[in-house]
Each structure stands twice: as C-alpha cells, then as structure tokens.
Amino acid sequence: MLRYPALHASHSGIWIASEDGTRPIGRGEAIRIAADTPVIVLNAPLVGQRLGYGDLSGLDVLELFAFMCPARFMVPTPRGLARVTGLDAPARDEDVAAFLLAAAQALLDLPKGDWPEKEGAWTSAQSLFRMRWPWAPLVGDHLTKPAEAERWLFSKLPEWSEGAPRPAPRTITLDGAETQDRLALLTGSTAEQRPGQRAFAQAAMDAFSPRMVRESPNMVLAEAGTGIGKTLGYLAPASLWAEKAGGAVWVSTFTKALQRQLGQESARVFPDAAIRKQKVVTRKGRENYLCLLNLEDALQGGFAGRAAILAQLVARWAAYSADGDMVGGDLPGWLPTLFRRNGSTALTDRRGECVYAGCPHYRKCFIERAARASSEADIVIANHALVMVNAARGRELTTRPTRYVFDEGHHLFDAADSMFSTALTGQETIEIRRWILGPESGGRGRRRGLQARLSDVASYDEGGARAISEAVLAAGALASDGWLQRVGEGAPFGPIETLLAAVRGLAYARAEANGDAGYGLETELAEPDAALVEAAGPAAHALDALVRPLVALGRRLEAVLAEAPDWMDGPARARIEGAIASIGWRAETVAAWLSLLARVGGPASPDFVDWLAVDRAEGREYDIGLHRHWLDPSKPFAETVLKPAHGALVTSATLRGGGADPDEGWQVAEARTGASHLLRGASRFEAPSPFDYATQAEVLIVTDVKRGDMGALANAYARLGCASHGGMLGLFTAIRRLRGVHARIADRMARDGLPLYAQHVDPIDTGTLIDIFRDDASASLLGTDALRDGVDVPGDSLRMVVMEGVPWPKPTVLHAARRLASGGSAYDDRIVRARLAQAFGRLIRRADDRGMFVLLSSAMPSRLLTAFPPGVRVERVTLDEAVWRASRLPSVTRLVQETRLDA
User: Fold this and answer.
1) How many Å apart are CA 266 and CA 252, to the nearest integer?
2) Closest residue by Cα to residue 650 from 668, 630, 632
3) Would you say the pTM of this structure is higher than 0.85?
4) pLDDT on residue 396
5) pLDDT of 810-855, one tens digit each?
6) Strand 422-425 relative to strand 620-630: parallel, antiparallel, unpaired?
7) CA dihedral in degrees (171, 175, 179, 181; nearest 10)?
8) Which of 55, 67, 421, 465 is the most exposed place for a label (fewest CB within 10 A)?
9) Could you give the CA distance from residue 318 to residue 323 in angstroms, rounded to a whole number?
10) In angstroms, rounded to a whole number, what is the distance separating the alpha carbons of residues 648 and 251?
11) 63: which residues sit within 8 A by CB, 6+ positions away?
C-alpha cells in the first residue's frame, strides 16, 4: 500500500485512509493533515472547496491518470476511476478514501503490463521530477529508463502535406430511391422502421439540388422532433451528395456535445477508421487547438510553478491526441480546472498572433492539419461560430463550402448576434494594442509585435515599413495595462481611456438604479452628455490614425505577394497570406469602432442597437465600453453565409419554438434563420416526435412556492430531488439564486446519499459536470442557460427537470429594442415558449424514458402552455403533491428497489 494517506471530502462528511484503516475526521483536522502531509485526493480543487481550504494540493489521482493515460476519457468520480482501473466502485462515501489508495496503486502499476502510452513517459517524468510534481518520485519508481533516447513530441508528430486545390463540386441531382437506400445502409437492417426519418431524408435532399438563381440557395427548414433520428436522416443525402459531387458538406452545430455525437455517428457512414479519418473532419476555431509554439515556449521556461506542470501533462496528451483539440476534444475537460485555469489559455492561439509558415512547427500544426484535412473531407463537422467567421473573414476562399447543414438551427440567431456585433471596450482595445506592439513590460513569453513578425517585409518594402511604423505609433493611443484602475480613479491616459471614463460616468449616472447591486450596468446610447461627446472626437481621430496604416499595410503585403521577390518561398508566402487575413480582420474591427463612435451625438441607425455598458461580476468591474448589435442579426448571416451557398438545411427539434400556432411558428423560424432575407423562400418540413409524450411525461406547475423566498425555493428543490432519488436537472435564470439554493440543500441531499453538483459553484467545467450527471443515476445537477439546451442524458439519470420560474428574458437595452420592433409582449411570449420547449426537450430522449417537468411558479400564464407537446398533461399542484408524484416515477421505484437489494 502507498505510504501516503488518502483524503475524501463530500457534503456528507470527511474521511482519511491509511495503512491503519479508514476513519472519519473533522474539517480542522483534515486541513491540518493536508497542510503537513502530502495526501492522495480525487480532484484537489473540489476537495479544497468542500474543506474551505483553497490552497489544498497534494497527490491528485486525476493528475496521475492524465500522465499515465493521456488522451483517454474518464469521468472524474470514484465510479469513473473504478471503471478505468478495473476495480470495484466504492458503495459508500466512507469507502472512497481507501479506494483511492487502491486506484492510485493500480495506475502506478500500469507499466508492468501492456501500456500503450509508454513512449515519452520516462523523459516527461524526469522533467516533472525537476518541477517537484508530487507524483514524480512514485511514478519514477515504476518506470524503467529506455535503452534508447525517446522520441520527443515535436519529432514524433506527423507532418501534413500540401495537395492540389480541390476542384469545384460537380452539379448533380440526388435520386430519391438511392437516398433511401443510403439511409437504410446507415441505420442497419435490424433497425426499426422510422417513417418520419425517411420523410426527413427525402425533404433534406432539396438542400443538395442544383442552385438555379444566383444568391438564392436551396434552403430547407426542417423541424424534426426528438427521436426522429435526424442525424442519420441528413447524413444520408449529405454523404451521397459528397460522394457523387466530389464536394464537402459542412455540418454545423451549436454545442460541443453534438459535435462529439456527430463524430460518433459518422462511423456508420464510414465504418473503416482509416477511411473515416480522411472523410470526416471536425473543425473548430483556432483558439480551441493546442499551439505547438506556445507549448514549446512553456516547456522551455515560459511557465513556472503549477502552470509548468500543466504544460508537461499537456505535452504528454499532445503526443497521443487525435487532433490537438483542447476544448471538447480528447483532452480531459477537467484537467485545466485542476490548475485553476493557470496557463491553459496561454497554450492556444487566442490573440491571433500565429506566424503561420514562420513557425518551426508549422508543418505539424494541429490547426493547419485540420484545415487541410477539411479541404479534402466529405463531411466537415463545425460549429455555427466557425462557419460565420470563415464566411466573413476566412483564409480558405478556394475551399468555401457550398452545402451546409445547420443542426441545432434554433441557435443560429444567437450565434449571428454574437458574431456580427461590435464592442469598443477596454478589453478589446488592449488586445489589439498587444497584437500590434507585442510585450511592453518585459513579460515572459514568445509574444511578438507586428514589427517583429513582419521584419523581412519591412526591410524589403519601404511602403510596408512606413505603414508598420505608423500603426505602431497609433496603437499607443489605445488602452494599456492598468487602464481599468486609472479610469476608476478618474485619471485616464490617452483618448481611448478618456472615452471609456466618459462611458463609465454616464452609465453610472443613468443605469445605477436599474441594475442589481454588484452586476453590470447599461444604458442606451441616446442623448449623450457633454463629456462623452467631447471624448468621442479625439477617440475617433486616434482610431482613424490606426485604421489607415493597417489598410495600407494590407495593400502593401498584397503587392509584395504579386511581385513574388526571390526570397519569397512557399512558407514565406503562406506567412504573408496569413498576415493579410489577420490585418484585414483588425482593420475591419477598428473601422466598426469608428462607425460606432459616429453614433455619439449623431443620428441612430434603424439597423442597429447601440448602448453603453459597465461589465461587473459580483461588484467588481472588469470591462467598460460601447456596444453595437444588429437589430436583426439574421440579415448579415443571410448576406455572408446563405447567399453565397448553393444549399442549406436548417433543422432542430424546436425550430418553430416560440410560435403560438404552427403558422406563427414557421414565421418565427424563417425570421430567425435568415430565410426571410432570401429572394427564394425556404421549403418547410415537419416530422413530429414518435414519442408518446402524453404517457411518458407530465408537467406540474407548483403554486405554493412564494416568489423571492430563497428558503422556500431551496426547500422545494431539496424535497423534489430527494423524492426523485436524484436524477434532477435544476435550471435557474440567475447565478445568485443557483448558488443560494445549492448552499442550502447540498448537505441535506448528501445525507440521503444523493450527490449534488452545480455550475458556477463546483470547480468543474460544464462538459464534465454533464458527464458526471449522466454517469450517476443518483446525482442531481443545477445549472443555468447552458444546460437548458445542451444536455443529452437519456435513461434514468435524468428523470425530472425543475425550473425555478418562468424564464422571462432579461430586460436589457438590446432586448427592449427587439421587443419594440417585434410585437411587444408577444415577442416576450415567443422567447419564453422557446425556452420552455428547449428545457422540456431534455426530459425525454428515448422511447422508454419517463419523466416529470416541474415549474416552481404560480404566475405561469396559460397562454404559454403551448410550449409543451400536444397531449402532455399540465396540472397546477401544491409542492406536497409534486413531491409525492416525483416519488412515484417508475424509474425512482426501480432505483430504490435496486438500492435495497445492494444493501
């Protein structure tokens, strides 16, 4: 047995295990032992939070797993750890500490057997030993020094190869019978016949028909209820078209969970793994991928302390990763949280500082490999944001897709709203300043300014050198380090900080009474005061002085490309092309800021909504600025993405969500997907869910929980969660209330053996929280909007959804403007109905699911009940009645019986 003790802390108690056995201990003794002795724990940040000892460190079994089993999946719980070690899972909380000792030993013993991740482990362990990683001595005792030097990461990764440009897709028309045959092949001969799925595949074919009119794509709006099988329904015509036309179909999602699911479903299209790797590629924004140059810098001393240990573990992972995706890929989502996010963001290219072919790892770059693989793939699995970014300012012009499938299409409006917005804030301006100037205060790292990145061009082209110098000079007027403190103290420096100070003053003057104490403030950009008008002029002059040299530099770089001097080889050309795209993006951003500043003291545009904001979190200011959003963001989406395309299928289970009746629902769908801005209207298709919602689910509106009474709200959640024996997804519209409820009920539920997890409370990323919830039928999960429409948990693990109240939209400046333009209270009703439909959709995911939807609000208007599927029983009941019904759910009865048998 390991010589170190193991510590486990939950909401029900604290235990420590050693050679002498297991015993319960108090919080004070646990903290004392953890401070004096290295202890083995599972998820140190979570244990530290439960002990009230934020500095807890030690031998975290999750870190050991990340080293021993890089790029492998594990749910970070005792049950998940048991699964990967082959041990029996502990039945009770008091057994977990002893189990951790056995699990740690099992992981350390992996080198004794067939260990696929052996290569590189010894070398990495030596580096971690020098960094005083607590596990390093124990790991080192179990490793044998290799006879030959191990290949290190940067020599081990394969290089991508450049290929000839892919020809444009051929013009073909799909055959209906052939499409149905393809669908049958994908579903398998033993699968049940789904008429709705076959009809869906037939309707989806229209999106792959030849386009007849320029800027008029074949657009299909298809609402397919849960259980239809729409994924294979659209993959059938999509894969057939890609095969016959020789083009790529981009399948776009909103959530990473669906991206992962699509990757798994693609195995039906291409069963052979090697072929699938060529034919199906997952693409995300470059900020999701590991940057090898940043990693090299971190490994060579750019990181210190815990961040340096994280870099070593990430390097171990990168050597075995399928695609280098750090966010939702095969890097465990819980790994960065173990390091308090210390350093993980610095390992990606979040500032757009890539030097492309100037990077020594360019030929092995995960991002470049994904880009090239997608140019040859049949199916590219992307997300809404990336599709819009590529269409608006992508570098891959020659491989721009002509066919799209937008799954989770009801999110297109929100994705476009974010993509096509403008924010002239302190944080945004300082990012551009850093991109142009590079490090200004002797900070460590490889970050370089524009002058350093384009030094060869500057020495060759006098006009380019002049433009770079002018841009560097003009960037000095942007907000710089310490700007937030200076603005708060009334001592801004430079024209941009002076503008931000004026914004702050006006926001506090007009919005303070309207905002919750400690949270963000905002006010319309209307009737500005003298201070803001006076500050806008010099700020606009400073931004104009910046945008001019950026535009000039972009033109000079294009001219250099055209001249093709002798020193310009392939890598240099690629680097300059990348610089042109990056400079163009920044120039567009600054130009948008100038347009927004013109609004100060000027006329309002009917297309935009402009406002001032002070962003705060729990009373602490973190950003200040001016904001501009499109009143209807589907308009730029249609112009940028839809009109250049030849065909687009937009599908969702709640595509018409929000409509009071079918006709209104289709009008809402057309307005929010951009279809109403096309010359050729979209075709419509509907396939209702095959589930029998009338017998599988019920909706209860609890009438006796007083609004605003935190104690009563917490009591309702606790009683319902205990009655359902866990399996509860609790949804909140405010983080403050979520935290308040969690603090009141976590211990209470733990005493009944029911784990409770929560977003914004537990130091665990959202994806991992969902994995934990899915893996344990007795667990419950509390969350906010991200869980209302991003959770796919079939079976007994999710048997009850509880919402704290009617999910009315927050009365922001932007919402008020859209409400005024879109029907007033009817617009609010549409939003609420859509949110209720999405939340209800979490409940029934399979034909054998049974569940209950509970709304803790006596003020639920009857007119909103059309959000739920026809036939679902909706009743207004007391909390006592709801609790009794929750205890009578079939899955609850079954779980209670199984628990008694285990006991």
Assistant:
1) 14
2) 668
3) yes
4) 58
5) 889 999 999 999 989 999 999 999 999 999 999 998 888 899 999 9
6) antiparallel
7) -130
8) 55
9) 8
10) 10
11) 133, 135, 309, 313, 338
